[in-house]
Amino acid sequence: MKMTGAKALIESLLQEGVETIFGYPGGAILPVFDALYDYDRKVNHILTRHEQGAAHAAEGYARVSGKVGVCLITSGPAATNAITGISDAMLDSVPLLVITGQVGASLLGTDAFQEIDVIGITQPITKWSYQIRRAEDVAWAVARAFYIASTGRPGPVVLDFTKNAQSEEVDFQYKPCKFIRSYVPVPEVNFSQIEKAAELINAAEKPFAVVGHGVILGQAEKDLMEFLEKADIPAAWTLLGASAMPSDFRLNKGFVGMHGNVAPNMKTNECDVLIAIGMRFDDRVTGDLKTYASQAKIIHIDIDAAELNKNLKVEVPVLGSVKDVLPALTKLVKPAKHTEWIDSFDIFEKTEYEKVIEREVFPKSGKITMGEVIHKVSEATQHNAICVTDVGQNQMASARYFKFSQSRSLITSGGLGTMGFGLPAAIGAKIAAPDRTVCLFAGDGGFQMTIQELGTIMENNIGVKMIVLDNKFLGMVRQWQELFYEERYSFTKMKNPDFVAIGKAYNIDGKLVNEREELDEAIADMLKDDRPYLLVVNVETKGMVYPMIPAGTSVTNIILE
Amino acid sequence: MEKTLYTVIIFSENTVGVLNQITVIFTRRGLNIETLSVSPSAIAGIHKFTITVITTQDVIEKVVQQIDKRVDILKAYYNTDEDLVHQEIALYKVATDKLLELGSIEKMIRDYQIHVLELTENCVVFEKTGHYQETQKLFEELSSTIGVLQFIRSGRIAITKSKVERLSDMLEKMSKLEQKVNATTETQE
């Protein structure tokens, strides 16, 4: 069928099952937006208020649904605005397709209006980027883009679409991509490595597992739990591995890393075999690599060969999808009981409860704390909600105190640590899961970085429950200044606007809470229907997220209070 | 850790922007590329990059993995000089009158196995192939005696001493995989 390249793009997206596009029109993408005008019943286009918002919203959508998030924007400044979202998706392995408009092919390289080298800029921060300069390439490029973004270790893909290719006619035929000869998304499983891993596990007295994003990306949550149950292995999770196991799962021993729980961090340096499952030994997890689990034999399961032995040299690297490796490993491990070892976590849990959690979550006096708010919201949603966070103290407190009953329930910017991620990502999350409650926890700093997306929420009536934990500081930076920079609070104090009034201006209901006694009612009020709501809580200005293992040190340096 | 000269050999699809994808991986780690040579390989449609870089084994392993993982890259690996037959080519332009003053041209041409590519009243152009040290030695000798008007040296090209190019195994495997994928797609259709 003859059609323009612009229409061919939309037809291609429909072929890939795209229902929602997050976008923002502009000169060099106008032909596509013009074509989109006729598809309003088939495609739900969400107009964000900034291209960064479009990229993060598409990320939020992808992180919740597991499908490729699609972002459609123009050239030049639009493309550069999306760079943060693309980088964020790269570091967190999020399947994202960003389509940027580009000047006509005859103008490329001439510094034409709103021309920038999108391919050159995005190559280091994408899994693949490609410039479509002819309408004939549209179907091929889109098929390839979806295949690359969604398979293996997922990641962002950029298609830079020149204006001439949007307007030219093409005989449209679509064939999904199933194979690229230079790309092996899921490596073949090496059974001899799995056997070695099983031997180590079977001989272990104090085995311990650390679960990462790979388990969620590989949809291997059940396989994980079967493996852990059979060999009776206590397990902890990284930030992006949150919700891979339900919070109340017997062998779930909590969060590891800089602000993680005491027990799993201490036990990392006590176990005899450490099984790292779909995680990448990020420095926020390991601290000082020299002391990290140095007593243990380490098994590392990952789909990406470049991650094996990258940060940490391990005894048994196992290349492969966790979805393939875990069931094979479960078959080979012997049923075991490690009761004494598992019980030995209790003492650390007790210490953490007494020194940190009780004070943070159930304070009897003083200002409201972040942990208290997060805990209450988690309870009020029966731990079934999707928790979206911004970056900083709000994020670490959310990971610590929100509880999860199903997978893909903590949506957070892990690798890039992008302030401003939360609000737009929550929009995408709610669109991906309209039947679930989506709660955003943001600080006053990050919320103001993408606050314009309140307009997107207003226009589309997206029922996101926004909770701003306002401490009038850039809290995490302030925390570092207090601990490591002699309390020299250099440019971390903020004079903030009346957030509730801003919400009102966008026709979003809200409430400001100052007192502990008001909190329960305010949360109940927020959750009473499915409308967007902005709850602003004035929290302790000098609150700290504990425990904390200072950057680049080991768990023995843990700060509890 | 000890630093050595490594030769990275990369086979890629012949598409726009592959070189940039490769070089940014070196840039990220602050590695300086010593030499670079790119040309079509023995297999139609596949380009071959030969890059030399001085670094540690630990770093080169990771760099090669990160290059290999790029979608447009078919295969990347690294070698040290022992595993390779390698060569560079150099061109030298010298002034004819000065060269004649030297008086011992035949010996020099024999010793260095020089090819004379051009000879005019004004200048002579020599070509010498060899390892870096060999082309450099001639350059230094000419520089210190009659002077060199212009000098250029190519990047290294190299061939592994093992029997077949490792790429051919991989291509064969991938082509079987492609047939398998196509077969399952057809049954589904």
CATH architecture of the largest domain in chain B: 2-Layer Sandwich
Tell me the name of the CATH homologous superfamily of the largest domain in chain B: ACT domain
CATH homologous superfamily of the largest domain in chain A - what is it?
A: Thiamin diphosphate (ThDP)-binding fold, Pyr/PP domains
- Provide the spatial order of strands within the biggest beta sheet of chain A: 3-2-4-5-7-6
Radius of gyration of CA atoms of chain A, rounded to a whole number? 24 Å
Task: For the record, give the distance between the C-alpha atoms at the N and C termini of chain B, rounded to a whole number.
Answer: 56 Å
CATH topology of the largest domain in chain A: Rossmann fold
Q: What top-tier CATH class of the largest domain in chain A fits best?
A: Alpha Beta
What is the element string of chain B, with H for helices and E for strands?
A: EHEEHEEHHEEHEEH
Describe the overall structure.
The complex is a heterodimer of chains A (561) and B (189). Chain A is 38% helix and 17% strand. By secondary structure, chain A is α/β, with parallel strands linked by helices. Chain A is globular, with a radius of gyration of 24 Å. The model of chain A has no long low-confidence stretch (mean pLDDT 97). Chain B is an alpha+beta fold. Chain B has 2 domains: 1-79, Alpha-Beta Plaits, CATH 3.30.70; 85-153, ACT-like. Chain A, domain 2 (Alpha-Beta Plaits). Helices cover 40% and strands 36% of the residues of chain B. Chain B is built from 6 helices and 9 strands, in the order βαββαββααββαββα. Chain B has helices spanning 18-28, 57-68, 96-102, 105-112, 132-145, 166-188, and strands spanning 4-13, 33-40, 46-55, 73-79, 84-95, 115-119, 123-130, 150-153, 157-160. In chain B, strands 5, 6, 7, 8 and 9 form a 5-stranded antiparallel beta sheet that branches. A 4-stranded antiparallel beta sheet of chain B has the order 2-3-1-4. The N and C termini of chain B lie far apart (56 Å).
